[in-house]
Amino acid sequence: MPGFLSPPQWYLFDYGMVISTEPTSEDWDRLEEEAGVPGLRERSSAYWQHRDRYDAGDLPPVRYWSRVTGQAVSDARASWLDVLDANQWSHYNLETLDVLDELSGSGARLALLSNMPAPMVGHFSGAPWTRHFEKLFFSSSLRLIKPDGAIFSYVLAELGTEPGRVLFIDDSTANIEAARGLGIDARLHLRETDLSRELRRLPV
Q: Which domain of life is it from (predicted)?
């Protein structure tokens, strides 16, 4: 990307709220209606209370959605709820996609590290945005989740690089702090972040 100074060896991106935007109210309405549970979007809901274990691969879909709905669900119903869940996290941040296109087009090495349950990983397999990434790391495959430092250590080993040669972009303060604790150059991505401008502020 023109204007970048001293680019890192690897750019490591999060998915949710970086590549994707947040679900819309209509998305949550649909999921809550199909699950038969109001308020799933609230951080105190069962959707979020059990999400870390789902992302980590500790809960299979039927068990996760049974806990979310408060009743036993079939494989078919769990699969349908997974589809709705993946769909609501499929609204893309067009600015980020432009940055990914420019970075990959310039020959930069890109990797992805996302807390994501296995069904959603399968849903996004082959999605256009994945072509930008040389490496894809998902919590459900690794059985580790951010902000556990172990997941960052694993990724660094797989990338074969030093922490200071990685630029990590994530929307979670906890994840950013954990990455920085290992020496990774981590940048917090907020809704108002101008990602292209942020990357052009790299030190010489």
A: Bacteria
Residue 83 token pair: 């589809």
Give the helix/strand (H/E) hosting 119: helix 118-124
pLDDT digits (tens, 9 = 90+) for 58-93: 999 999 999 999 999 999 999 999 999 999 999 999
What CATH number should be reported for the domain whose range is 10-21+92-199?
3.40.50.1000
What would the 3-class secondary structure string for the chain be? CCCCCCCCCEEEECCCCCCECCCCHHHHHHHHHHHCCCCCCCCCCHHHHCHHHHHCCCCCHHHHHHHHHCCCCCHHHHHHHHHHHHHHCCCECHHHHHHHHHHHHCCCCEEEEECCCHHHHHHHCCCHHHHHCCEEEEHHHHCCCCCCHHHHHHHHHHHCCCHHHEEEEECCHHHHHHHHHCCCEEEECCCCCCHHHHHCCCCC
Full-prediction pTM beyond 0.90?
yes
